[in-house]
Amino acid sequence: WAQPAGPGGWAPPTPGAGPLGSGASAPPRRLGPYEVERELARGGMGVVYLARHAELDRRVALKVILDEGGGVGEADVARFEREARALGALRHPHVVTLHDAGEEGGRRWMAMELVPGGSLQDRLEREGPLEPRVAVGLLEPVARAIAAAHAQGLLHRDLKPANVLLDDAGRPKVTDFGIARALDRQSRQLTRTGVAMGTPAFAPPEQCGGERAIDARADVYGLGATLYALLTGAPPFEGQTLIAVLAKVVREDPAPPSSRRAGVPPELDLVVLRCLEKEPADRYASAEALADELGRWLRGEPLEVQPPTARQRLRRALRRRRGLVAAALLAPLLALAAGFAATGAGPAPAAPTEVEWLTPADGLVTRATRVELHGRVRGPAEWVEVGVEGGAAPRKVRGGDFTLVAALTPGDNAVRLRWRASTGEAGQTEARRIASLPTPAWYEGLPPARRPPLPLPEGLSFSDTPGVYTWARNGSELVWVPPGTFTMFVDRGEVDPFRSHNVQPRETTLSRGAFIGRLEVTWAQFDAFSRAEGLPPAERLVRFEPGVQAGEKVTWAVDPPWRAPDDHPAFEVSWDHAAAYCRWAGLRLPTEAEWERAARGEDGRPYAWGEETPVKGDANMFADDGFRFTAPVGSFPRDRSPVGCLDMTGNVSEWVADRAGPVDSAPVTDPTGPAAGSAHLFRGAPWTHPEAFLRLSFRKGHRHDTGNPLGGFRVALDPR
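The structure assignment produced for this chain is given below.
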């Protein structure tokens, strides 16, 4: 679509365009400048595709609204447009970025930042409740993002773990502003009095229908409910039915998180329960105030929140008594709210026995050969037998949730549930399409010598980017360093040109190969480790920079010191702390041989790209390259090694596992360096080196227990 998006990030439909969703229901090959690659997810009102901007070569999540035949109405279109306007108005590092939006051939679409790490809900389902410091460390920037939205006049109204995504560095990003509303006006067409909006288990009482005004403190409640779920693994209120949940939201006080999970500090109980107060006036006054409180807790400073007063406790007791008397009066409100997030229509009557298939959604693409199916049985039947068509024996369920396992064959699978009840009823679900792709096409296209052995190590998976593998524990991106024999310590025929250690050319064999980090470990990743381990936050400060005076290289003080952002490589990290980070993440430091093989390939090249002397823009170095100090990891595409590692020529020197010491010329297999010594090795030149010294052969020893302001690290992993 040729027209540019408007200021709100949403471009109006092309004049004369067909009706919403006109055209074939098959996935489009192209929308605007985006080439559609495959489906990522599908929901009630839209579908999300992995797409690529043809000119910029940028992959995005392309969200497309379904056609009217799929049950999408005017309210859904309005919600879609409102989400685009809300995202277009926000620019915040912890809000999913809207790149583009438009309409083509009757299809409305949004091109959003691709956030590959799943949602907080996915992480909860995978890992269970999070450690308190991890949970607070994730929610504090989310609260900052919501405060920024409020400053722009936007109220989110649907905060929950499923609406917070994690990028490949583990940083949270808020998404789904589909029911966002302007704080300074009411929309009579999109939010009618008495219609509930949001997700009931995470919604505040004032959002559950009725005549009550809604302001920014509704999002404070949603933030508190999200933190509650991160700490306990469940929302503050649960029930057998939606009406039961809403009744608890309106009438009951939540149990303290520490009563549902041991180890939650009592001060976090106070913070969470203040967010979840029934009366907005009793909550934190703003998302910013909550973010400040969470920051104080992370820093170990005194909190502003105090235990409830006697008056507050009395008010709660009276509210509970009033709730018993008002149950009959509340029923009509709850019946209305049973159509949560609808536009006023009441729920359709349920069949006597109902089998609901919850997850996975239709269109799932997985690398697994077996998949768990989650569902729910409702109705008066004493039991219901549920099974996978063509699969194992059915399972007898006596109401409530159930889990089945379906075996998948490579390629597309049509999976259907069949059931029969004790009442004589029987039925089946509609088939859902689940594609099993044990290995991606890009892996099959690699030369056999470039493929890591299968199966991959537990916790490592194929990513959508060719040649890149994702470590589930912290989202690290790894590449494969194949086994082989090569010569170390030779640079253009010259042995160790820096003369930093007594070394000789050495024939070296890596017998198994290894995975190594595609990027250097960032400050965001290292700080997540520090918070989880209770370590003080790093300063991240650059206090000096190189310069030239009278033809001589000198060092200038940086005053005031410069603080590195989240996406820059961590530096001044000791070898001990780098190794501790790797243990925490389930990884390790690369050996010197693995590092050199990854950086220089089989030909022993002096630079990641080959033999050519670096010029401005090739790597982060002592030159006018756009970065005065360190650069965001991956900023220099040419500084890409033969196996796909970035920033090995410049940016920061990198710790390896080996100790420093003399190296002889005897051939060796899988070397690990000297067995003793207090110094460990850095490899690769840092950003302070000019072109002539920016060599991959650079190696330097340093004490293991102190950091170096020019040194960082990347991770490694053994094959299975």
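Interim note for the steering committee: Residues 1-24, 184-197, 320-351 have pLDDT under 50 and may be disordered. The longest strand covers residues 552-563.
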